[in-house]
Design goal:
Number of strands: 11
Shape: globular
Order of helices and strands: EHHEHEHEHEHEHEEHEEEHH
Oligomer: single chain
Strand content: 15-25%
Distance between the termini: 17 Å
CATH class: Alpha Beta
CATH architecture: 3-Layer(aba) Sandwich
Number of domains: 1
Largest sheet: 11 strands, mixed
Number of helices: 10
Length: 294
């Protein structure tokens, strides 16, 4: 179904070539469209790429989606042009009196920092507290999931000995959860992070449920029992080439990264990766929108 985004957003041209449909404000009013309003707090440095990835997953569902983008106003953005932010983004102070059907808090490449040392941590705490009463369900991704688990339940992250990067098999622990409806017992998902959440602490928390884990990448999908919060430690929104781009970036920086696990065919970085997680990613977002975002 169509999504409503700013007319000149660069992602629109890419998604139109993929047959994603769009609707505008005039159509929304004239045809009395019942849509789901989604607020996206985009913390990623390459915001245009993340916009495209998330809009693709939202647009590949049966729902009309109206999207609003925000970024932290207490943080100076250096990796996205100011003109792009001015045209397509707003700030929390401008929308705090609104309510939304769903919200997405993205990851951010800052997991080496204690949460309290993040420049916009105080603002993010206010937004996450606000979400408890103004959003029906919030989807937290990667660092956003770690931040959400820390803020809402006091479960802190810990540093890994080496970067968790690759496409890992995961097991569904509760096949009866509506969030994993239609999932196979085992599915693949990408991860890219230097920190993790202790599974033992997650299992001890009475207010949340761990729905999926990986023997190699730890907890993957965690939900609050009231469905208000979803914590996703991986990156199902990633394009098929994103892990390759990150690997090449880290090589260029002299970081000597390991090859992403289960990613390059024959572990040959010159071969084209396979999009093993595409179906699961689409199904996850469809389930979230249909079962949690109400």
């Amino acid at each position: 179904m169509p999504i409503n985004i700013p007319l000149n957003l660069p992602a629109k041209d890419i998604l139109e070539r993929e047959n994603i449909k769009f609707f505008d404000e005039q159509m929304k009013e004239s045809e009395k469209i019942h849509y789901k309003s989604i607020l996206i707090l985009n913390l990623m440095p390459e915001k245009e790429k993340t916009e495209t990835q998330l809009l693709r997953l939202l647009g590949n569902t049966e729902f009309f989606i109206n999207v609003t983008f925000i970024f932290p106003e207490t943080h100076q953005v250096k990796t996205t042009k100011k003109d792009h932010l001015d045209e397509f983004y707003t700030t929390f102070s401008s929308i705090k009196n609104n309510s939304y059907d769903g919200m997405i808090i993205t990851g951010a490449p800052i997991e080496h920092l204690p949460f309290e040392d993040v420049s916009y941590w105080n603002e993010l705490k206010v937004i996450m507290d606000w979400s408890k009463h103004h959003v029906s369900s919030t989807l937290h991704i990667c660092w956003g999931a770690q931040a959400g688990l820390y803020f809402h339940y006091g479960i802190d992250k810990y540093a890994l000995d080496r970067k968790c990067s690759g496409v890992f098999p995961h097991e569904v622990l509760n096949v009866n959860s509506s969030l994993v409806k239609g999932f196979p017992r085992t599915f693949f998902a990408p991860h890219s992070r230097y920190t993790d959440i202790p599974l033992t602490e997650l299992m001890k928390c009475a207010d949340i449920e761990v729905l999926s884990i990986s023997n190699d990448a730890g907890a993957y999908l965690v939900v609050s029992k009231d469905k208000r919060f979803v914590f996703l430690t991986g990156h199902p929104e990633y394009d098929v080439t994103t892990l390759r781009d990150e690997y090449n970036r880290d090589k260029a920086k002299g970081l000597h990264p390991s090859l992403p696990v289960n990613y390059f065919p024959n572990n040959d970085e010159n071969e084209t990766p396979v999009h093993l997680w595409k179906e699961h990613a689409n199904l996850l977002f469809r389930n979230w929108l249909s079962e949690f975002v109400v």
